Amino acid sequence: MVQRPRRLALFAVLALVLPLAVTGRALADPTNNSPAKLTKAVTLNGVLRHLDAFQSIADTHGDRAAGRPGYQASVNYVVSQLTAAGYLPSVQEFDFPYVEDDSRLDRVAPVPRIFQRDSEFTRNGFTPTFEGDVTGVVQPVDVVVPPAPVENTSTSGCEAADFAGFTPGRIALLQRGSCGFNVKALNAQAAGAAAVVLFNEGQPGRTGLTTPVGPTPGLAIPVVFATYAVGAELVLLSPNTTVRVKVDFTEETRKTWNVFAESRDGDANNVVMAGAHLDSVQDGPGINDNGSGTAALLETAIHLKGVKTNAKVRFAWWGAEEEGLLGSEHYVAALPQAGQDEIALYLNFDMVGSPNHFFGVYDGDDSSGTAPVPIPPGSAQIEDVFEKFYADRGLPSEDTDFSGRSDYGPFIAVDIPAGGLFTGAEDVKSAEQAAKYGGTAGIAFDPCYHQPCDTRSNLNLTALDVNADAIATAVITFAFDTSTVNGVRAPGKSHGRAPRGSVS
Q: What is the pairing mode between strands 418-422 and 343-349?
């Protein structure tokens, strides 16, 4: 794979690049020592102040993605806020595999359209991968639209004979099927194609994105893979369709950071952790995903600072979540067994203000029967706290899959109980959910998920306000008493830790 290193000039981690951000904050109040008092202190305006700062960072730097200056500035902002509140925050540095992808698939004519990377198309993963930028007329090669009823039967591009009549210099449009992607691409190149658009075959389960891989010695044209819908659209518009195919990416190792802050008081052998990922996707501000969880957790930490807790409370803001939970994975993997055993539970807050929201609670008791991963005992009791919060306010809530998809995944993998909140991403709201929560059925919970439009305006403020209170309630509830989860009694000192996996 072609590597073209690009270096970022990063500021020192603790160089506070946003000095104005520490002004205008209410000081931590030691009397915020109950759920009612803490939720009153954690206001929507306080949360929005942080989100305004994150939007400003994204406006300045383009995004807040790990490995880029906007993430550095986001780290500096969180550190500055915690320091001003009286914490002694720590920053954990780690290396991660940075990929910057500027690949494109655009319809130039007729009716220009930019297809969305990672949702409508993706670059290939061939070895080696050729980088290039080509604009030309699309020519379908032995494609079947609508698809054959039986999957893996399309022979599009599998034989040299498929390219009889192919016009050299055009862009070959090929369908997934009975031979390897690399075979198709190399056959197209031999026939004179300037580039290749591969698309999925179209049967159920074969409509979305996959990444073509395999040895492609001698490949010298750019190749991308598209969804069946994109391929079918291009087929229907041919023979007069012109597209741009660009493969351009960087792969290198870069540094990023997790941020932590701990309560002064509390049993260090009984730690309540609460976390949210701080990074955005590339080319997006990431205000709902996950400025919303980051900001609500930060405001909770600020107002909890003066409270004398029974458990040690450890707040975490994770780096490189969007690259595959890398920050939380690094943290958990670096913990010795004794450090893992000290953690009573982990609370995760990823997307808590989706514009077309539902109130989702991680299904810690697997009552919906959808969990694809083992659920540590004690997780059901965390779910109970959130469900009670909504019920006490007369609000609906429902299970959301305990899938390990966010930063709680590395914790449950080592049998640490976990729970949290989620208001929805790319999945579509049902009519039943619209009747329950309001909003619009038939569209995504967050239509701007992983898109540049995930801005400060991409929030449901009612959901964000409610969930900020839910976060504060859960954190302080467990800060005073974790006995339902792990058997450690409160108030006062621990009376002995129950073995991991038991609840008394």
A: parallel
